[in-house]
Amino acid sequence: MRLSPYILILLVLSLIPEIAHAQNDEELSYNISLLSSPEDEGLWIVSSNPPHWDRHGFLWYAAQENLICFDGQRATRYNFTAAGDTLQINQDGYGFLSMAGLDSSRIWLIFFDNINFHYKLCLWDTDRRQVMKEIRLEDKFALLYLCQDIATRKSYFIARHRKSDLGHVYEMTEDTSLLFKTKLPVGSSSPPRVLQDTIWIFKDLSLIALDRMGNELMTLPAYGSFELTNQPGLHIMRASEEKSLSVDPIRQIVKPIEIKNAEFEGSSYNTFTFPQEVWLSDFKQRVWLYNSTTKTTEDYTSELAELNDRFDLKKRNETLQQVISYGADSYILVFNSTLYLAEPVAASLDDWRVPVSQTEPYPSVRQICEDSEGNVYVSYYTDVSVCEAGTESFRSLRLNPQNTYNEAFSLSTSATHLIWDNYRYRLSDLQLSRLPGSLKKSMSLHLHEKDTLWTYDRNARIFKTQLESMRDTIIQEALFDKPIIGNALIRNQDQSESAFILATDLRGIHWLDRRGHMTKQMIREDLGLTRKNTIVTSLHQAKGDLYYGTHFGLAVIREGENQGELLPGFARKQDGEDVHDAIYFIHPLADSRLLLGTGQGLLIYRMDTGLIERLPDGHPLSQVEYNRNAHFSASDGHTYLGSVEGLFRINPDILPFASPKESISDLFVHNVSIYNSKFDEYRSVFSDLMSRTEPIKLLPSDELLTMRYSSPSITDDRWYAYSLNGEEGSWSRYDTRSELELISLPTGAFTVHLRASADPQGEQYAEHHIDFYRPAVWYHRRWVQALGLLLACGIVFGVFYARFRAKVNKEKALNQWRVKVSSDLHDDVGSILSGLAMQSEIMSMTAKEEDKESLAEMNEMSRDAMERMRDTVWLIDSRKDKYENLIDRMRAFAQKRLPEQRWAVDFQVTGIDSSKSMSPTLRQQLYLIHKEAITNIQKHSDGNAVAIRLVAEGPRLSYTVHDNGSKHELLSTDGLGISNMRLRAEQIRGTLKIDREDGYRIRLVMPLDE
């Protein structure tokens, strides 16, 4: 039967030969590990839903109850009913019937709307985590299925009419355009598949190929279901209980494959075919891997059972639903509720190690070279071994073991000789001779120029030796003033006067001419090596730049510059400490790459980009200490590397070197769950969390914020940290939890910053942040608090203002009363006393002589009472409460009591604003003290001058009365007047002092009345 051109691009079936079990004691090719378990995820994946990788590295697959997003550590469930922290796509959570990817960020899904009782197509955006479109499907359709063409990567929707054989096939563009109509036979038990313009269906134990119009192109017998393989060009199906059919549409071959293994007889199994391997599984959770290259079969049933027992997984009748290729050589095994990762078994050092000695299995290899015949030589401390051209193993040469020593270092060849340190061996018969002038035990460096050998030894001597004639010339007796160990000697490639470049332990790098003279030198400080005991270990010249290895990484001297610089990236964190890559050899590769041997493994440095590539953690070659200059690329294409653990033969191009990513995969927030304490309920936010520009608005009663996030990685762990507002020093410690809970949220605007890293001590991380705004409870809002504060201030102000007004009114009333009393006293009592004085004076004119004295005394008393009454009226009168009133009164009293004919009165006022008011108490007591002082001077002093000072100094007011009298015996400090003055001073919180040393001085100091 010739196949139609429509199916010429059909997948070619892998040819599975007779299957035989691998023996239990044979080593398996893959290690199986658990990715996700049913206890964590609660999944039940249906076989008709192939998984889908999105562009960020998340794995999406449909289950009976959820749409699952797997990031490598945990699964996030989505469905269309909001319950707790999920978004349920179906109101009752019945999940999805089928799934197919549209592109790297969108998935088409079929689900049943249990509320309206009809099917829907849903377009799901994996970036925004939201439904972009829903399409209701017509009720006339019965069979509904989404599938993807493995060859073209296009997705199709297939629907068959309930009452006819007519079927519709839609290409799943964003508009779901109809591709063609065809007839789909009734009774199809397996979902149809579309391979470009060809539809494959299963009916009545036959596999049928149909064209656009439903015409039958090909019919093959098939038992059970059929499977398409995971790679274009391959297709597999069951033809009977014991046979499968292989279909090669290009060569138009249909070939039966017999399966004689008893394990498969009478049972159905699923097959998942890859270019060189086929995974097989039956319905008893048994899994095999067939390798079409080695034609062997490995049984992974026990490994899976051991994992199930170790993690106490639920016993379910699970089957292998999908096998997904991950990376270059790993697989993800998708069972109904559990995911497993199959990774290649890690290699060991023995996979690259080459035995080089019979007496010592892994000697420390010092140097490697090759002769003109293609024989490869390696040296170690006690011998040299050779791998002859066309062979794979090394044999010992047994080169004069009595003359060897533990410092043997260099190895090189010429056309006829092998030179091991300071000894020359003829290749034809290994006859030994020592190089002329060399020391017996002295490490040296070799450099060949045809038959000329240049040698630098540890005593800083440079030799030029003709190997054929063995004529030796010391061209430089002592290059340095003391022995300096050399580490690398290379030929200078530029066209300068320097012929060689030498690297030493203590002196840096030196440029030498052919006479051994140093033409240029760069000491350690010039090379950027300022730390103690930092040496140059190796050299390599490339395009005018000179690269050199150090204990702190790789460094370079750029062309035309006279300063070296350490290149970045050779320091990393390990257990919280800085660890540097000590570079021991530099080996050039193609494409501007340098293979670097370090004290802790192999590295690749790309000179064009400056990127450093490392082997994966745990790789055997990443844990070896390599020796200085122990590297060589042989003519047979092998690269040989020497280390303290022996010799390795590698191909650098196939080793899994990888550059550290500039940043790890994006950090996504899957869900923000918010708990409201007022309503005691949760709500979720999913929409467009990655590209949101506006903050998420919270309610005042939202008290708990839960965020779920992840950075996808199937094989590497992820570590996460968070910070509120991203302030330095506020970041949490890295943790593997990908969930954050914030309790008692702050009010106002705040930002949650998240970080994801593959190494908690590294500097590379992905970062994302989400802004929030939470208004305060109404009584905590600022305007409410400001209004409350303003109201409180108003109340306080009102209270104090009322008290102030009451005090003012009281003082006003008191002042009015004082004015009234003073007026009444002045008008009533004053007139009586005045009348009494006048009456007594008139009576004295007509009185008898013996009565005149009494009347005169009465007159005097009346006038004295009138004067005292005037003082009292003055003191009571509130209109006289200013300093100017007191000063005028005091000056008038002094002038009245101390007449000018006898006394010279000097009254001065300083620093007082006379227009200011003063308290009645201060005015009264100061005035009465003044009267008493003047009266004492009038009565008891024999002086003729008085100085009166009233001075305001800061917060103090001082009053001083000083006369020039010398008569003191009549004035006693115990008198009643003095006592009254002291009492009055105390009432105004003043201090009264009396001094008689130079006249009579009274000084009163009191607080200034403001």
Detailed description of the structure:
By secondary structure, this protein is of the alpha+beta class. 15% of the residues lie in helices and 40% in strands. The strands form 19 sheets. A five-stranded mixed sheet has the order 69-70-71-73-72, covered by helices on one side. A four-stranded antiparallel sheet has the order 1-30-29-28. Strand 25 and strand 26 form a beta hairpin. Helix 5 runs parallel beside helix 6. The longest helix has 65 residues.
Shape: elongated
- β-strand number: 73
Percent in helix? 10-25%
Identify the strand order in the major beta sheet.
Answer: 69-70-71-73-72
**Overall residue-averaged pLDDT value:** 78
* Most strands sheet: 5 strands, mixed
Strand content: 35-45%
Structural class: alpha+beta
In DSSP terms, counting alpha (H) and pi (I) runs of 4 or more, how many helices? Answer: 7
* Straight-line distance between termini: 125 Å
Low-confidence residue ranges: 1-25, 230-234
The radius of gyration computed from the alpha-carbon positions, rounded to a whole number of angstroms, is 55 Å
Q: Please, what is the oligomeric state?
A: single chain
Layout of strands and helices, then pairs:
Elements: E1 30-36, H1 38-41, E2 52-53, E3 59-62, E4 67-70, E5 75-78, E6 82-83, E7 86-87, E8 96-103, E9 106-113, E10 118-125, E11 130-136, E12 141-148, E13 155-161, E14 166-171, E15 177-183, E16 193-195, E17 198-203, E18 206-210, E19 216-221, E20 226-228, E21 235-238, E22 243-248, E23 253-258, E24 269-273, E25 277-282, E26 287-291, E27 296-299, H2 301-310, E28 320-326, E29 330-335, E30 339-344, E31 353-354, E32 365-370, E33 376-380, E34 383-387, E35 395-396, E36 411-413, E37 417-420, E38 423-426, E39 432-434, E40 444-449, E41 452-457, E42 462-466, E43 471-476, E44 486-491, E45 500-504, E46 508-512, E47 518-522, E48 536-542, E49 545-550, E50 553-557, E51 565-566, E52 571-574, E53 577-580, E54 583-589, E55 593-598, E56 601-606, E57 612-614, E58 626-633, E59 639-643, E60 646-650, E61 668-676, E62 681-685, E63 696-697, E64 702-710, E65 719-724, E66 739-743, E67 748-757, E68 766-774, H3 782-846, H4 849-876, H5 883-897, E69 904-910, H6 920-940, E70 945-953, E71 956-963, H7 976-987, E72 991-995, E73 1000-1007
